[in-house]
Amino acid sequence: MSNLTLDYTNCLSDAIGATHGLTKSEVDTLVAKFPKHHENVEELRSTGECAFFDLPYQDLSELKGLLKKHQGKWENLVVVAIGGSSIGPRSLLNALGHGQHNHLEAKERKNAPRVFFANNPDPRALSELVETLDLKKTLFQVTSKSGLSVETLAIWLWLSDVLKKKVGKSALANQVVFTTDRDKSPLMEIAKQEKIDTLPVPTNLPGRYGVLGNTGLFAAGLCNIDIAKLLAGAGEMDKRCRHGDAFKNPAYMHALVHYLLTRKRRKTIHVMFSFSNRVHSVGEWYSHLCAVSQGKMLNRKGKAVHVGPSPVAALGTFDQHGQMQLFCEGPFDKVVTFVTVKDHGAKISAPAAAYPKLEAVQHLQNADFTTIMDYGYWGTEQHITAAGRPNMTIQLDVVDEANIGGLYYLLELSTAMSAELYGIDPFDQPGVEHCKQATFAQFGRAGFEDLSNRIRDYRAKPRKTC
Questions:
Q1: Among positive and negative, which fits the CA dihedral 15, 21, 25, 28?
Q2: How far apart are CA 311 and CA 284, in angstroms?
Q3: Among residues 219, 217, 214, 188, which one has the least CA distance to residue 74?
Q4: Following DSSP, what letter does each residue of 262-329 receive, concatenated?
Q5: Euclidean distance between the first and final Cα of the chain, in Å?
Q6: Contact, 404 vs 282, CB < 8 A?
Q7: Max CA-CA distance within the chain?
Q8: Fewer C-beta within 10 Å: the chain N or C terminus?
Q9: Number of other CB atoms surrounding residue 417 within 10 Å
């Protein structure tokens, strides 16, 4: 069961003053409009604008079949993907897997594969990755919804050639799984030719929303993460938030407070400050989700609005010794969301009698490390609040499948509601698509000749250098 709470006390004027905090009137006025905003979000669900709404209730039979085929049979898994299709599974594994998973012996991993990500066409990084792996003992998950992402497709073509030469022609059929759109992706034609297994990505599921779909669940399942509990946690959060009362809806209140602080107090930098290494990986995923979903030039009516916060992921207590200086004394342009955990899943403490004559360490005798994390959070929250900086806290009882599933879903739903408030489309990515097309154009792909000429002319312009 997901036990997650959202405390937004320190975003209100009663805590930090009206210059930087929201007044009761401002909050109440927007809360009153939320039943209609909720209806609009529900319409996105009913019309199939994005499949993330349905992922908690998806049919897992096909996924389970492929997991059964591959479970415990591979020393390594390489996830070939980019953007959200890479960040999602990496975040999921970091949140719920062992922190040193790849360094464990096979027995300690319960025969789960070590997991690596080929998510950038850096030639040295890719070469070094392949050099370190026994390719005969390696499974490859190639994920691209469109099947057109230049980087993923190029990496796959290179790897397929390497596999054929070093393992044999049968390697593609035996050691590769495509996760892609079965209706539109050119990867499906390759899959038919090479007899490669596939898992579907719905046409209406952008990669950044696919962490709880086959994109993330295949790797998670191979690594013995309880998929059913993960989706159950997401489903519980869906049911908890499927109403228009923002005061009782953590996803909607998360969206409402961030929206008002951005619009009325110009808090355009949104920090997710996680006091847990495991949850920090969710913060990194959320930075991607937030940037691509909310950073938009045009609203749904085609009017130029140029909206969207700049997301930042910070790690506590580590970033108390760095970014915290900016958060508490820099420009008043940030709202911080702390994420805290009651039970970190391990207990260690400093010894009781170390260096008894050294005064500087006496206060740390028997110091519990969970307490160090808690004191770090409370000290940071108090200082930021005293400095008049708006902040809220998401608290998890424990980092487990149910809570992480609920957290992913809360942040996705909050993102959808934020877009509703801004009047933008959270599921498109025109800026990203332009960059993809620019790469097509420079490689001479048919249909992009005009863009190719513009880029050629741009590159020919003189530069001032030093």
A1: negative
A2: 9
A3: 219
A4: HHHH---EEEEEESSHHHHHHHHHHHHHHHHHH-EEE-TTS-EEEE--EEEEEETTGGGGTHHHHHHH
A5: 59
A6: yes
A7: 76
A8: C
A9: 28
Q: Are 400 and 229 in contact (CB under 8 A)?
A: yes
Supply angle C-alpha 147, 93, 77, rounded to 5: 55
Angular region, 345: left φ>0, alpha ψ -120 to 50, beta rest: left
**The CATH number of the domain covering residues in 52-228:** 3.40.50.10490
The residue among 85, 86, 108 whose CA lies nearest residue 97 is: 108
Order of strands, sheet of 4-7, starting from the edge strand that comes earlier in the sequence: 4-7, 391-398, 334-343, 269-274, 310-315
Domains 4-45+230-422 and 52-228 in one fold: yes
Asked if residue 139 lies in contact with residue 112, where contact means CB atoms within 8 angstroms, the answer is: no
Own/partner contacts of 366-372, CB < 8 Å, gap of 24 or more, are 369/344, 370/343, 370/344, 372/317
User: Does the domain made of 4-45+230-422 have the CATH classification 3.40.50.10490?
Assistant: yes
Q: Do the strands 296-298 and 304-307 form a parallel or antiparallel pair, or are they unpaired?
A: antiparallel
Taking the C-alpha atoms of 399, 404, 407 and 408 in order, what is their torsion angle to the nearest 10 degrees?
150
User: What contacts 279, CB < 8 A, 6 or more positions away?
Assistant: 95, 339, 341, 396, 399, 404, 407
Whether the bond between 138 and the residue before it is cis, its omega within 30 degrees of 0, is no
Closest CA to 334 of 377, 270, 263, 380: 270
Strand ranges for 90-219 from DSSP E: 114-118, 138-143, 176-180, 197-200
Q: Which of 396, 367, 179 is nearest to 278 (CA)?
A: 396
- Provide the residue-wise pLDDT of the chain in tens; the chain has 466 residues: 678 999 999 999 999 999 999 999 999 999 999 999 999 999 999 999 999 999 999 999 999 999 999 999 999 999 999 999 999 999 999 999 999 999 999 999 999 999 999 999 999 999 999 999 999 999 999 999 999 999 999 999 999 999 999 999 899 999 999 999 999 999 999 999 999 999 999 999 999 999 999 999 999 999 999 999 999 999 999 999 999 999 999 999 999 999 999 999 999 999 999 999 999 999 999 999 999 999 999 999 999 999 999 999 999 999 999 999 999 999 999 999 999 999 999 999 999 989 999 999 999 999 999 999 999 999 999 999 999 999 999 999 999 999 999 999 999 999 999 999 999 999 999 999 999 999 999 999 999 999 999 999 999 999 999 9
Place of tokens 């170390």: 354
Token match 């509601």: residue? 417
Give the C-alpha separation, 250 to 265, whole Å. Answer: 21
Nearest to 117 by CA among 187, 224, 226, 216: 216
The domain limits of the chain are 4-45+230-422, 52-228
